[in-house]
Amino acid sequence: MRPARGARAQTTAVSLALHVVPGLEDLASRWVGQEIPTADVERAWRDFDERTSLLPIHLDREGDASSAAEVLLTCPLAEDVFATALRIDDVPPVFAGLHVVRDAVAHDPALTAALDVAFKLHGAVRRVTYRVICRTAGRHSFRRVDLQRAVEHGVTQRFPSWRLVEDAARLELWVVLAERRLWLGVRLSDAAMRHRSYLQASLPAALKPTVARAMVVLSRPTPDDVFLDPMCGSGTILLERAASARHARLLGGDLDPAAVDATVTNVGPRHKPISLQRWDARQLPLRAGSVTALVCNLPFGRQVGTAEENRRLYPALQRLPILLRGLPTTIYVIRRVQTASRGAVLPRPRS
Ligand SMILES: C[S@@+](CC[C@H](N)C(=O)[O-])C[C@H]1O[C@@H](n2cnc3c(N)ncnc32)[C@H](O)[C@@H]1O
């Protein structure tokens, strides 16, 4: 891991970055290390908002940025991919800080290098439309919208022909200001990256596909897996398992017929052999030892079920690991640790 670099604009060599769901930083970082061995993944920026962490990625050789970006765009654990356009490590938290940001946007060569990556990937256009998305955390005497305006003024100064739009912008500049540290990235991905094309039918309480994939990765898939999601909802976990590696069989079901229908729609004719049916996870029609991995997103008792129902449901699920054979894995996602310990349904890592 590389420590944060020094103050002010640092380099014209392009760095990239991922946005990931908090909690997925280490898995995503490992994925990058495997897929791009020359990449150097910096410690994640966390806690600037509850939905996102930022994973800066530095590349060894100049000129690698576009091909590395293409690899990152296939990362199943990331929400978005960016070319880093600016890093400033000491933005004054007062109004003068806005001038620092505006001037860097107006003049820093790293922004041009990041834009080159975006245009190389997606093609250049004559008339650029853009928008700026800002997140801030910490104490500043200016507002988030002031920061946004400062970036926009810098852009206007540097690229007078660019047009600011609210939606459907050709370019998106995303800014994170966490205390005094600023990062600005040119977005290389679009919404398809995180939403997945297989999601034709969706239900409330569906997992983010990236989180489902993280759970699948933790189950350490092998080609002989008989993989079970006993409360599959719209099938996100099963579909991420299917996309991650070969399997011997996928098994899924749900108490709610609408959920089973949604999974059938999302799976389509693919991923055989797969068995989907309506069932009660407390009484599954499966033999002991017939499953090798069990991954499930339990109802939290908010969008699906109630706390009262969960007090009965969770203890009944203690019997589920009996289904597992060999050195199995059981991974649940649960909302509150208190609920888990009361229900005594706890993750059992593969030893
Ligand atoms: C949080 S949702 C799962 C969402 C799913 N992972 C997805 O991404 O679409 C929990 C699911 O558990 C199902 N469920 C609740 N009690 C159940 C039971 N006793 N047996 C089977 N399914 C149950 C609900 O119908 C709901 O679809």
| CATH architectural type of the largest domain | 2-Layer Sandwich
Taken together, the total number of domains comes to 2
Which structural class is indicated by helix and strand composition?
A: alpha/beta
Shape: elongated
Terminal Cα separation, in Å? 27 Å
Mean of residue pLDDT values: 89
What is the CATH topology of the largest domain? Answer: VC0802-like
Please give the largest β-sheet: 9 strands, mixed
Number of strands: 14
Radius of gyration: 23 Å
Range of helix content: 25-40%
Query: Can you tell me the residue ranges where pLDDT is under 50 for at least 5 consecutive residues?
Result: 1-11, 336-351
What is the number of helical segments per DSSP (H or I, 4+ residues)? Answer: 11
Give helix and strand order, one letter per element, not per position.
EHEEEHEHHEHEEEHHEHEHEEHEH
Strand content: 15-25%
Q: What's the CATH C level of the largest domain?
A: Alpha Beta
Which distinct ligands sit in these coordinates? S-adenosylmethionine
Describe this structure in words.
The protein is an alpha/beta fold and 351 residues long. The protein folds into two domains: 15-193, VC0802-like (2-Layer Sandwich); 197-347, Rossmann fold. It contains eleven helices and 14 strands. It has helices spanning 25-35, 65-72, 95-107, 109-122, 144-158, 192-195, 209-218, 236-244, 257-267, 307-316, 337-343; strands spanning 15-20, 40-41, 45-49, 52-58, 80-88, 129-137, 163-164, 171-178, 181-187, 226-229, 249-254, 274-278, 291-297, 324-333. Strands 1, 2, 3, 4, 5, 6, 7, 8 and 9 form a nine-stranded mixed β-sheet that branches. A five-stranded parallel β-sheet has the order 12-11-10-13-14, covered by helices on one side. The two termini are 27 Å apart. Mean pLDDT is 89; it is low at 1-11 and 336-351. The chain binds S-adenosylmethionine. S-adenosylmethionine binds at residues 203, 205-207, 231-234, 236-237, 254-256, 259, 280-282, 297, 299, 304-305, 313.
